[in-house]
UniProtKB/TrEMBL annotation:
InterPro entries: TPR-like_helical_dom_sf, TPR_rpt. TPR repeats lie at residues 272-305. Gene3D superfamilies: Tetratricopeptide repeat domain (1.25.40.10), Toxin ADP-ribosyltransferase, Chain A, domain 1 (3.90.176.10). This is Uncharacterized protein. Keywords: Repeat, TPR repeat. It holds the Pfam family TPR_12. It comes from the Eukaryota.
Length: 339
């Protein structure tokens, strides 16, 4: 096994799980397998020698395995074969005096149950609405939009879904997706808006889920409905900013600014807000020239909307001063002059 693969899957995963994608051939004859384990005497070889020792709980039948020694071409092999998808817990990883890694694994039902719970949580978080919504999602991917629409329309009337705001929001999102593919723009916008409204009202809204629906809604709004698009883009850019995804935040807010410039007068306060936000993003990426460009554009708009002594103007002037100082300091360091 290569160094990187061994570190990632085994050595750094002690206490975690090891899953095998194919059939896993093992032996009950330790001396037989030790001949093949090798050692680490070859310092130029970027591989690791490992011996796996497996403990089996015979009361567990989640994963199939069998003693096939009688069917083997080698009498001393004592082969035990595990089925595809078997999951083991990595109990310990030790390096012995021969330079061979000794990896102790355990096959029990515990791993299976934990992984099943994790899988279900991930599905619920991503889709919401349970197996039927998963089926509808699959239908959408297969291009069976009519069948998906019919199934989702049935799910939306399910009493267990109606009382679950998160699940219901997921159903509306999927209906929006279906209608988008069916080129029914009004219906798509309607269901995306319902989904967004429900997600915002959750006790703990998930930023990634909100951003997904907002993005879909922004793309589907009709030309005369510019303000909902702008609102979505602004919120998405703020979410990207919170997750330190500055490039995506910048790209999204610039799209919002482009639409604002077409919809509002050049001295509108919302345009100033976008200019300030974009300037701050450039400042985070240390592009101070662009930072000052956007800050100064914002500064031209503020006096039209605020009094000269307004706190926002004072704060912006301070930001411009700090940015100018940072730019000058980095220029001095770049020239090799000590500060």
């Amino acid at each position: 096994m290569s160094d990187s693969e061994f570190d990632k899957k085994i050595r750094r995963s002690a206490g975690g799980f090891l899953s095998v994608s194919g059939f896993f051939s093992t032996t009950a004859n330790r001396s037989y397998v030790e001949n093949y384990a090798g050692n680490d005497t070859n310092e130029t070889d970027r591989t690791q020698s490992a011996l796996f020792e497996i403990e089996i709980d015979e009361t567990v039948n989640k994963f199939q395995y069998a003693d096939i020694s009688k069917n083997s071409a080698f009498e001393n092999e004592a082969e035990i074969l595990f089925t595809m998808g078997a999951v083991f817990r990595i109990q310990s990883v030790d390096h012995d005096s021969r330079g061979v890694w000794s990896v102790k694994l355990k096959l029990t039902g515990e791993e299976y149950e934990e992984l099943q719970k994790l899988t279900h949580r991930m599905i619920d978080k991503t889709l919401g609405g349970g197996p039927k919504v998963s089926l509808a999602s699959l239908m959408i991917k297969m291009g069976k939009y009519g069948e998906a629409q019919q199934l989702l329309s049935e799910i939306i009337d399910d009493p267990s879904i109606i009382i679950d705001s998160k699940a219901l929001a997921g159903v509306h999102h999927h209906l929006g997706l279906v209608y988008k593919y069916m080129e029914q723009e009004q219906n798509a916008v309607k269901h995306y808006q319902l989904s967004l409204q429900m997600k915002r009202q959750l006790e703990e809204p998930e930023p990634s889920s909100l951003a997904c629906t907002m993005n879909c809604l922004g793309l589907r709004c009709l030309p005369q409905e510019q303000e909902p698009i702008i609102e979505c883009l602004i919120v998405i850019s703020q979410l990207y900013y919170e997750y330190n995804m500055f490039h995506d935040a910048l790209e999204t807010r610039q799209r919002a600014l482009s639409l604002q410039s077409k919809l509002y007068t050049s001295d509108h306060i919302d345009i100033a807000s976008s200019l300030l936000f974009i300037g701050q993003l450039y400042r985070h990426t240390k592009n101070y020239d662009q930072t000052l460009v956007y800050f100064n554009q914002c500064l031209k708009i503020y006096p039209v909307n605020y009094g000269e002594e307004h706190v926002d103007i004072t704060q912006l002037l301070r930001k411009i001063e700090l940015t100018t100082n940072q730019m000058n300091e980095e220029a001095i360091v770049g020239d090799g002059v000590p500060l």
